[in-house]
């Protein structure tokens, strides 16, 4: 797929009357930061824009981005232009059908294997975050970038690189962070909220993870059933960082978690160390994502977390045995 010119996309946005911006379901800071940076930049030139998301946001996101940063109700007739950010899959977009029929639809992303597109598209897989793609768009389009916009973009850049330690971090990631700091990004506030704050509930969840993880042949994993969720009074967003936490463990190369976030709906999240890519495993399970950080969503009323874990372990073993045989 050939990318459209960013200046052309910027022109489409500048001539819009009202823009609806979407990100993937259960949005992370890269998704929210990309959406709100675009919304703010458009508002500064008197183009009305809304970030559309019907889901309840995490307290961490509210602490940084503020209350009611998303519009929960959506009426397609109110908008003439539609943007999807940081979302490689139509199954994770609340209104994916719009991008198949709208003459003014735009997809901005950094993931591989995008399964839906708009009329205009810019997907740069060399970027470590969608916020970097949006930053390029704002620069090429000569949009004003104030300290608030810079802070939103920095937040997405920092989280998607794991505070610049993940393998997707490049020289360009550091350069973007440098430029955003010059533009007034409040990294101190972001770091305080995202990296230096924790609630008692989060401590209890971490304790559950540490008490229940298992290790097999260099693979660490944790299984969280729907009953476990209820006992901990957790919601489906509370276990989003399990694999990220587990991959820190010494002497393991692959981490995965299976969380039954809703009855019979399982989220399988993978993280891995350099030399042990896991995206192929996620794709085998119907998902996708980055080479060393990816996920799958599975609906099945005939299994449980234990049965599914055996399937995941088998897929990992099969893939890595095949690689050794080549």
Topology:
Elements lengths: L5 H9 L3 E5 L6 H16 L3 E4 L7 H7 L15 E5 L12 H4 L3 E5 L10 E4 L6 H11 L6 H14 L10 H12 L4 H8 L5 H13 L1 E3 L2 E6 L1 H6 L10 H5 L7 E9 L2 E8 L6 H6 L3 E2 L3 E7 L5 H21 L1
Parallel strand pairs: 1-2, 1-3, 3-4, 4-5, 7-8
Antiparallel strand pairs: 6-7, 8-9, 9-11, 10-11
Describe this structure in words.
The structure is a single chain. The chain has 326 residues and is α/β, with parallel strands linked by helices. Helix 2 (29-44) packs parallel to helix 5 (130-140) and helix 6 runs antiparallel to helix 7 (171-182). The strands form 2 sheets. A 6-stranded mixed beta sheet has the order 6-7-8-9-11-10. The protein has helices spanning 6-14, 29-44, 59-65, 98-101, 130-140, 147-160, 171-182, 187-194, 200-212, 226-231, 242-246, 279-284, 305-325; strands at 18-22, 48-51, 81-85, 105-109, 120-123, 214-216, 219-224, 254-262, 265-272, 288-289, 293-299. Helix 4 links the parallel strand 3 and strand 4 (105-109). It folds into 2 domains: 6-194, Alpha-Beta Complex (inorganic pyrophosphatase (n-terminal core)); 200-325, Diaminopimelate Epimerase, Chain A, domain 1. The model has no long low-confidence stretch (mean pLDDT 92). It is globular and about 55 Å long. It is 40% helix and 18% strand.
CATH architecture of the largest domain: Alpha-Beta Complex
Write down how many β-strands occur, each being a DSSP E stretch of 2 or more residues.
11
What structural class do you assign from the helix and strand content?
alpha/beta
Compute the average pLDDT: 92
